[in-house]
Every structure is written in structure tokens, then in C-alpha cells.
Amino acid sequence: MGAALALVSALSYGLSDVVGGIVARRMRAVRVAFLGQLGGLLAVAVAAPVLTPASPAAPALLWGGLSGLGTGLAMAFLFRGMGRGAMSVVVPVSAVGGVALPVLVGATVLGERPAWPTWVGVGLALPALWLVSRGSAGPATESGPTRGSVTDGLVSGVGIAIQYLALARAAPASGLWPVLAGRVTALVAVGILACTLMRALPANAERRAGAREAAAAGGAGVLAALALAAYLVAAQSEFVTVAVVLSSLYPLVPAVIGVVVLGERLSRGQVLGLAVAATAAVLIALS
């Protein structure tokens, strides 16, 4: 059950990326991120008291809030890294780092010992994520990757790892309250990022975007919140190592939708990455 929920999390995250990516063609990415966090916050604020009427314990809210700070950290450095250097380096570094660190913590700190097919799947998932994310990130900028942009990708990966690890520490009885706490802190963090970046833009830097685009951005955030909720339950009933790796396979969703729906073409690296990732998912899920 935990593995299935982690895959649901990956699907929801992937769909959120697709919707957010489409909206970002007409709206600044940082504004899409802010509206997404707002949409996710509103959705969880409605669902949390209905699904979990009991008041949450303070530790669960603190873990959830820390998770949201990880989300904000990840977004801030991802956006900065993409602005400083090659997106085709920053994105995969962030994606792989966000998986590798929780796996390392799960094995060394939490003492998790999954079956050997799971470890084989984890070993396959990391290069698969690199290949799929690097292929979908587009060509390098003219200036090429810089040491600063790689560092930003690594710090973004740390933020993703904090998001996953902190949320997994919340007690099962806390329900969706940790996700709600995380959306509050993430909204604040992304709001600060949005104000900082938008102030630096010229007045005409953003293309026209209306209520439909704003609603779609909010919908992307609702999907991301659903992904976190599914991951939370998965991490409470499964090894964190398994839940994180399966949930982190979300880059496969935009790649597949791009081919099937949008008629995009995959690079050879992406095709290889998709095949390896599918093998990894099967090994982990069936272990």
C-alpha cells in the first residue's frame, strides 16, 4: 500500500509540473510557484479539519513547518541556479540530490534495511532521474554551467531532502495537519522569493496572464499538495527510502505526457532514463 501511494504521489507531482509548466509560458515561474502554494494551502486547509478533526500535536506541526521551509529553500535555489547557469545541469543535480540524501539518511541514521531488490532499484533510479531530468531541461545556456549554478542545484536538492525527511517524521495520527503547516511556511518562503525576484524585473517582463492562468497555477498547487499527502501516508507505512525514491520518479510523467499528448520527441538519454526508471519502480514496488 505504501509503495502504491508513493507512486500516486509521483503521478500527482508530475501532473502538477505539467500544468505549472504550461502556465509558466504566460506567467513568470516564480508567480506560478506562489499561486501554486496558495492553491495548495487553501485545499489542505479545507480538507485537514474534515479528515482529521482532532487537534494536531505541536511536534507534527513543527515537522510539517520544517518540511515547508525545505520546499521554499528548494524553489529559491532552483530558480536562482536556473538564472545563473545551465538549466540542464541545475535541474538534474537538484532532482538526484533530493533523492540521494534521504536514502543516505534512511540507511545511516534511521537504520532502514530494505530487501536487496529495493537497493538495486534505488541504484537504478538515481541515474534514471538524472537522464530524464537532464533531457527535459533543455539545452545549456550560452555561458554554460557555472560553479555557482551547480552549488545552487545541490542546495536545492538539500531543500527537497528536508521536505521529504521532515514530513516523514510526523506522527500518523496527525493526518493532513503537517501538510497544512508545510504549505503555510512554504507560502511565506516562496512569497519572499516572489517579491524579491519580481521587484528586479522590468514592468513589461511578464506576458499577459488572466484569471484562467491564475486558476490553473492554483490547480497545480492542489496537485502538489495531494502528492505530499500521498507521500506522507506512504512514508508512515513504508521505508522512507522506498517512499522517497518512488515519489521522486515524477519527472517521468511530464516526459511521457510530452510525447503522448504534446507530440514532443525524447532524446536517447531520456528514453534510456524512462526504461531504467520503470525497471527501478518495479523492483522497489515488488520488493
From TrEMBL:
Keyword Membrane (UniProt): yes
Keyword Nucleotide-binding in annotation: no
Membrane-spanning intervals of the chain: 6-25, 32-51, 57-79, 86-110, 116-132, 153-172, 184-202, 214-233, 239-262, 269-286
Record key words, sorted: Membrane, Transmembrane, Transmembrane helix
Domain EamA stretches: 2-133
InterPro entries, alphabetized: EamA_dom, EmrE-like
Pfam families membership: EamA (PF00892)
Gene3D superfamilies: 1.10.3730.20
Top-level taxonomic group: Bacteria
Family named by the database record: Belongs to the EamA transporter family.
Protein name from the UniProt record: DMT family transporter
Organism this protein belongs to: Pseudonocardia yuanmonensis
